[in-house]
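Sequence only, no structure available. Ideas?
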Amino acid sequence: MTIKEMQQQVDAWISQFEEGYFSPPTMILRLAEELGELAREVNDVFGEKPKKPTEPAGSVAMELGDMLFVLISFANSLQLDLDQVFEAVMTKFRARDQDRWTKKSSGLTNAHGSDDQKGR
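Reply:
I predicted one. Tokens follow.
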């Protein structure tokens, strides 16, 4: 699924309700709320503070999904095309951070970590 399709699905979902999108300040609060829930799950799974037996089980993946939904909702409410936003951000990172980190010495790698030069 493309980002554009995700934005369309979220818009179709929210557009069926009279209330529509939340205001920008409420969207920020929703992101903060979801981030807190994600942080709790990460701390349970990877951190030093496991959940109490009385706390409900959760999922890092679902909390990331909740954040993605709210982020897409926020972008839609501001009429932002996330494909364009993402390209602009990647251009910024490529220029600003090209020499910031230590490059891997094993050659060029693709997004899956395999060596492009070996055709894997």
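The first helix runs from residue 3 to 15.
Hope that gets you unstuck.
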